[in-house]
Amino acid sequence: MTDIFEQTLKQLNEITDTASQKVGSFFKKAVNKGEEYAVKGKIQIEIEKLKWDLKQLYIELGCYVALKNRDGGVMDFSHDDQYIRLLDKIENQRQYISERVKDKTSSDGKENHDESAQKLLENPLS
Number of folded domains in the chain? Predict the structure, then answer.
């Protein structure tokens, strides 16, 4: 009788240990996935803010060109320092967005590009 009791207790302990290991493994995976999604979400929020900033730079450039054209009839901006500075800011912003999109796709582990960011970088005036 004692043998049956000990054997049942031993089996119960083995089942409990196995269940405990599986639950622990599950929680580790859940925590890791949560951290992964948090990082991806943070990068995505940053990309959206950068895209908004880029649009603001385009608006600033457009206002500058319109003002110069209206006030002085300026059509050639090739020697205008402010115009060149704005273009440099825009190009730097576009490159940074591209880098962040690459960071996001590399954290995904697959080639899943942010289509709206790529569209904005390829055709900024749409």
Answer: 1
**Cα separation, 54 vs 47, whole angstroms:** 10
Q: How far apart are CA 7 and CA 103, in angstroms?
A: 55
Instruction: Write the secondary structure of 45-92 as one string of H (helix), E (strand) and C (coil).
Output: HHHHHHHHHHHHHHHHHHHHHHHHHHHHCCCCCCCCHHHHHHHHHHHH
The token pair at 62 is 């457009």
Domain of 11 in residue numbering reads as 2-122
Report the predicted TM-score, pTM, of the whole model to 2 decimal places: 0.66
Q: What is the pLDDT of residues 39-87, one digit of tens each?
A: 889 999 999 999 999 999 999 999 999 999 999 888 999 999 999 999 9
- 95, 64, 93, 96: which is closest to 80 by C-alpha? 64
**Residue 84 to residue 31: CA distance in whole angstroms:** 48
Residue pair 54/97 in contact (Cβ under 8 Å)? The answer is yes
